[in-house]
């Protein structure tokens, strides 16, 4: 059962919704039980847990950002001239600067995530090393 939950978590909300709908179609109490589980476990909560995005949320956010960035490049190129060369130049420079800041911020967040993952892993390994070994060593009867 845990393997099924982990697999559905990897696929994200759409997979959970599909399973819930299938449950309602096959036998409505099953769908209702799945809905209750999703609400109780917080899997269908809006936003991120503890300020973090799941892998699924991050993947879709990155796709969305790439689409918006591509659209912005295409759209910015289609701006009609305002007739004022100084303003047009200022607008282009400002948009370029904002895109650069956005890229740098995304890179900063990625470095932060990696640093947090590394510190959590290091803590896990330290805790694991410090655990007393359980066995028959030193046991006398």
What's the quick description here?
This protein has five helices and no strands.
**Helical stretch tally:** 5
Low-confidence stretches: none
Structural class comes to mainly alpha
Count of strand segments: 0
Which band does the percent of strand residues land in?
A: under 5%
SSE topology string: HHHHH
What would the average pLDDT be, to the nearest integer? 80
What shape does the CA trace take? flat
Gyration radius over CA: 25 Å
Question: What does this entry look like structurally?
Answer:
There is one protein chain. This protein is mostly helical and 141 residues long. It folds into 2 domains: 2-41, no CATH class; 56-126. It contains 5 helices and no strands. The protein has helices spanning 2-11, 13-26, 28-41, 55-77, 85-130. Helix 2 (13-26) packs antiparallel against helix 3. The protein starts with a helix and ends in an 11-residue tail after the last helix.
